[in-house]
Amino acid sequence: MKANSKLVRMFKVLYMFFIFFIQIYWYKISNKPETEWEKLWGSIGKRFRKTLFELEGLLIKVGQIISTRADLLPGPLIREIEDLTDKVPPSDWSEIERILEKEWGSSHIEQLSIEKEAIASASIGEVYKGILQDGSKVAIKVQRPHINSIVQTDFRTLGIAIWFANYFVPLPKGFINLKVLFSELKQVIERELDFSKEKETLLYFQERFKDSDIVQIPQVYTDFCTSKVLVMEWVDGIKITDFSAVDQLNVTRKEMAQRLIKVFLPQWLEPGTFHADPHPGNILVSKEGRIILLDFGMSGEISKNDATAFQSLIESFLAKNYAKAVECLSRLGFLLPEADTRMIEKLLAEWMTFQPAQMTEMGLIAFKIELNDIIQALPIQVPTRFVFLGRSFVTIEGIVTHLAPEKEILDLGKPVFMEWLMSQGNKWSFVWQWLQSQPLFKAFHSVTEFLKTPEKLELMKETEQRRQFQFTIYENHKKQFFHLTLFGLTGIAAGIFVSHMLILKLSIALSAFSIVGYAIISYKLKKWMKYMHKKR
C-alpha cells in the first residue's frame, strides 16, 4: 500500500471522526433534547456507513463488529450499520498469483489447477476454486494483497480517534468504554488475519462433529495451508435461506430448523470453541439434508464456568424458575449492581408468557421497538466475552424463525435441549430447578428477599447518588475549562487584530491554563470511569 494512499485513508477517517466529535460536543453544551440526539446518532450512522463503503477493506469488518455492541452504542447508530455486507471487489489475479508463489513455491502451484476468477471476495480474504492432480475439487482462501498494511493504517487511525475521544469528547451517560471496544476489535481482526488459526478451528470442529450424521465440515489440506493461504475441500450445497430449494429435500423445514439448533446448542452450552459468524452465506445444506458449516475465521471460546451458568439459565427458563434465571444472569455479569432483581424477574415472566401469534404484524413491530427501548433503559450490560456468543445466537435465531415462521423458537428448541440434557447435561439439575419454581420454595425465597430489601434499596440509592454527583462535577469542570479555552482563543485573535500585547499575553496565559486544566480533569475523569467500569 502506497504512502500517499495511507495518508488519504487516514485523513478521511480522522476527518469523519473529527466532525462527529464536534457535533457531539455542540449537542452536549447546547443541552439538546433526547429527540435531537436520536437524529444526530442516525446521521452519524449514515455518514459512518457511507465512509465504510467508500474505503472498503478492513473498515467494513470494523463496522460489522461494532454493530454487535448495541449495549454500548446508541440504537439509531446501530440500526444504520447492522446490515453491513462484507463484499468488496476481487483483486487482480496477478497479485493473488504472487502471494501463492511466495507462500507455496513453484512445486505446489504445479499440483493445482486454479480458476482465475474469485468465487467470493471479502475484506480480508478471497476464495478461488481449484482442482488437485487427483481430481479433487478444493476451495482456496487467499489473504488479500496489502491487507496487513491496510490493517496497520486503520488500527493506527482508529487508535488516534479513540485516544482523542477518551480525553476530549463528553462521554454519554451509558459510560462507553472505547478502549475495551478497540481492544476487542483488534483481537478479533488480528485472529482472522492468521489463516493458520482458522485451520486449527476447522480441525477442531471436524473432530467435534466426526460422529454426527447431520453436519458436515470441509476437510483441510494441511500441506497447502499457510498463515495466508487456506485450502479446503470444495463442498456443494444450497443456501439454508433458499427456501424453495430446501422444500425439495426429504427434510421438512421444521426438522431443518431443529437440526440447526442441534448443531449450535452444544456450541453455546459446552466449554470450548463456537462458530461466531453463522450468517446464511456460511451455512449450506447438502442434498441429504446435512448442514454444512463454512468460514471459521471468526470464532469464540466458552469457559467451563460460563458454560455451566448458561446451562443453568436455560434450565431455569424451561422450569419457569425466573428467580434462578435472574441469579444466573447476575452470575454471568449481565446485570449491573443496582439492578432490581424482582423487577427483572417480573419482566422475564411476562416476556416468556407473551404470544407473538396473537398480534398483527404492525403490532408486533411496535412491540419489538417498545421492548428494545425497555431493554436499553434496564440496568443490563453485555460482557465483552459474550458479544460474539450473542451474535452467533441471534443469527441462528433469525434463520430458524424464517425456516419455521409458524413455530415458536422455544417450542423448537425445547426437545433438542432436553435430548442434549439427557445425554450430556445434568438432568438432576433441571429437576432441582423445577422444584425451586414451585410455590413452597418461591414463598421462602420471597420472604428472605423481602427482609433484605430495605438494606439493598438504601445502598443502591446512596451509591447511585454519589456516582451521579461525582460525574456531574467532572463534566461541569470540563465544560468550564472548555469555555475558558474558547474565550482565551478569542482573546488571542482580538490581541493580534488590535496589536495589543497585554491582551495577547493575558489571552495566551488563559488559554494555556484552561487547556492544562481541561487535560487534568479529563485524565481524572478517565481514571474514575475506569474504576467505575471495574466496579460495574
TrEMBL record:
<feature type="transmembrane region" description="Helical">
    <location>
        <begin position="481"/>
        <end position="502"/>
    </location>
</feature>
<feature type="transmembrane region" description="Helical">
    <location>
        <begin position="12"/>
        <end position="29"/>
    </location>
</feature>
<comment type="similarity">
    <text>Belongs to the protein kinase superfamily. ADCK protein kinase family.</text>
</comment>
<dbReference type="InterPro" id="IPR050154">
    <property type="entry name" value="UbiB_kinase"/>
</dbReference>
<keyword id="KW-0418">Kinase</keyword>
<dbReference type="InterPro" id="IPR004147">
    <property type="entry name" value="ABC1_dom"/>
</dbReference>
<keyword id="KW-0812">Transmembrane</keyword>
<dbReference type="GO" id="GO:0004672">
    <property type="term" value="F:protein kinase activity"/>
</dbReference>
<feature type="domain" description="Protein kinase">
    <location>
        <begin position="113"/>
        <end position="482"/>
    </location>
</feature>
<dbReference type="GO" id="GO:0005524">
    <property type="term" value="F:ATP binding"/>
</dbReference>
<protein>
    <submittedName>
        <fullName>AarF/ABC1/UbiB kinase family protein</fullName>
    </submittedName>
</protein>
<keyword id="KW-1133">Transmembrane helix</keyword>
<dbReference type="InterPro" id="IPR000719">
    <property type="entry name" value="Prot_kinase_dom"/>
</dbReference>
<dbReference type="InterPro" id="IPR011009">
    <property type="entry name" value="Kinase-like_dom_sf"/>
</dbReference>
<keyword id="KW-0472">Membrane</keyword>
<feature type="transmembrane region" description="Helical">
    <location>
        <begin position="508"/>
        <end position="525"/>
    </location>
</feature>
<dbReference type="Pfam" id="PF03109">
    <property type="entry name" value="ABC1"/>
</dbReference>
<keyword id="KW-0808">Transferase</keyword>
